[in-house]
Amino acid sequence: MGFVDRILGRRADPTEAWLVYEDEPPSVDLSKMAFGPLRFGAELQEAQFLGKPDSFKWSCKNYCELLYARRGFQIDFENGKLCYLAFFIGQDDCLPKHPALKLSKPQIRGGVKLTQETCVDDLRKAIGPAESADADDEETILTYCRSGITLEFEVNTKGLLKRWNLYPRE
């Protein structure tokens, strides 16, 4: 990062020296609300075990996005703390625009694998009934709250899973 970057307010990529990993993302432990060893509120450097992201960007002063496009997920940090996790599971107009993007098949600890064939009934069997459902012409968002974390499952008009978002309950 050079002098001009500092003058223009550009910030360094703290993941620049991280190694690249190709393995599957870790499972999500719903009892601990953890992504592998990473918990919400964890420091950015604790995510290094995931390897260098395919894309890193500061979206505002204290908020950064780490896109693991080839592995189908994204993690965000606010004020240096993990605040958001998203798995891109099925086709969606709101998918990140990255040439290497692949769909994810995240696993919930205990053996449940979420895929683009996962339907609303599968989610109910695995997690129970949603606390709320918000539907429009393009999707339905099923919301659950567990251990202070909000889980949003976005399903398409056919009732098939396309995205899973996790973030601390406000």
Please sum up the structure shown:
This protein is mainly beta and 170 residues long.
Annotation keywords:
170 residues; mainly beta; three-stranded antiparallel sheet; disordered N terminus
Spans of at least 5 consecutive residues whose pLDDT stays below 50 are 1-8
| Mean pLDDT rating | 92
- Oligomer classification: single chain
Which structural category fits the helices and strands? mainly beta
Portion in helices: under 10%
Number of domains: 1
How do the SSEs run, as a string of H and E? Answer: HEEEEEEEEEHEEEE
End-to-end Cα distance, whole Å, is 35 Å
Shape: globular
In the sheet with the most strands, the strands line up as 4-5-6-7-13-12-11-10
Cα radius of gyration in angstroms: 17 Å
Enumerate how many helices there are, as a single number.
2
Number of strands: 13
Main sheet summary? 8 strands, antiparallel
Please indicate the percent range of residues in DSSP E strands (runs of 2 or more).
Answer: 35-45%
Describe the structure.
Helix content is 8%, strand content 36%. By secondary structure, the protein is mostly beta strands. It has one domain. Strands 4-5-6-7-13-12-11-10 form an 8-stranded antiparallel β-sheet, with no helix packed on it. Strands 1-2-3 form a 3-stranded antiparallel β-sheet, with no helix packed on it. The chain is globular, with a radius of gyration of 17 Å. 22% of the residues are buried. The model is unreliable at 1-8 (pLDDT under 50).
